[in-house]
Amino acid sequence: MQTPILSLLAALLLSPVNAAGVTGSPSGFAQGTTGGGNATPATPSSLDELKQWITDDVERVILIDREWDFSNTEGSTTGKCCSKEATTKCPGGTSAGQAWIQDDCDDGTWITCTYDNAAKSPLSVGSNKSIVGVGSKGVLKGKGLRVMDGNNNVIIQNIHITDLNPEYVWGGDALTLDGADNVWIDHNKFSLIGRQMIVSGWGKGGHVTISNNEFDGVTEWSAGCNGKHYWSLLLLGLEDFYTFSGNWLHDLSGRAPHMGTDYTDSKILFHGVNNYFQDIDGHAFDIDTNMWVLLEGNYFDNVKTPMTDPSLSSGAQLYTTSTVDAASGCSSALGYICEWNREANTGTWPDRTDKEVLTKFSDYKDFLIGHSGVAGVPESVKANAGVGKV
Ligand SMILES: *[C@@H]1O[C@H](CO)[C@@H](O)[C@H](O)[C@H]1NC(C)=O
Fold first, then answer.
1. 10 pLDDT tier (thresholds 50, 70, 90)
2. Is the pLDDT of residue 9 over 90?
3. Which numbered atom of ligand 1 lies nearest the CA of 59?
4. Do 44 and 53 touch, CB atoms closer than 8 A?
5. CATH classification number, 118-384, choose in 3.40.50.1970, 3.40.30.10, 2.60.270.50, 2.160.20.10
6. Could you check whether the bond before residue 202 is cis, i.e. omega within 30 degrees of 0?
7. What does residue 312 show for φ and ψ, rounded to 5 degrees?
8. Catalytic member of 146, 195, 255, 352
9. Where are the domains of the chain?
């Protein structure tokens, strides 16, 4: 039997190691995700070692204690990109647009472009990994991550992914889920991305919790011509369950998020709780069919189009009310009173209470997370979302 003094010593000796790993554990749909579990946290000493640790089959807790810069590590490509009137020349816009890295240019003109190759090929994350930033130092510059081909049980926490050819559409995606399951994306920041900050499809995204992240759309190159990134989140997985909570989405102009697809077998549940949408000069939600969406306690602040019109007739099932009475109508099905969504200086918000949403989510009650009062969302989300805050 250990004496109290020995236990105390043991705790003191162990605590620095524990503090260096993942903080907390996921709630919502990714609950049970352990990533690298109890593997000893370790810091890679070179870019090659970082790449090997992220992609191999070994259970690992990988500490990101600096900015790892991938730009110029795989060369660059000079070729032609498509410039379109609305997205590159930006007549009357307040920023430049983005040119398109693609093979056809029917509705535009070819221009010469040079882009970094590393940003276009994300690292494939192996199963059982935690990739964790240290303090506010963890940066992946010029390369994203993807979980695919059946890999699962991944935690990505407290890292900033940035600088993926932001001048170009198709310049790179920050996080991709394609044949994944059990992924916790927590307290990260995304900025200056060419294409999507998070994308899933066409394989499944699986059980995913996206919590406390900062989606920072400030850019000099915007497909919206307004200094705000357009391609924010695109969720099109085959069978996906998202808990999306405590995120700060700001200075964006579209797809924040776009989700759902008429791809026949797709089925996506999305529980959006206590997110703060701020200064969106375009649309936040754009929702296609095969979706069941429960939104509660979200705060829309200066959002031009909080939900697009096609979302309302796409076949998507929506429980998105902004009235206290209608929100509380969820309680018989879900066992708690839902929180209303709130708008300030924001376009029209649809008051939908589709019963099918409650029926669907009542099968997944154990995955529903609690909410806080919507009035406190701007302050609490800005204080907690992003890197250096876990
Ligand atoms: C991941 O961990 C689980 C549980 O320990 C194990 O069954 C599985 O084989 C691991 N995957 C890989 C690729 O090592």
1. low
2. no
3. 14
4. yes
5. 2.160.20.10
6. yes
7. -80, -20
8. 255
9. 118-384
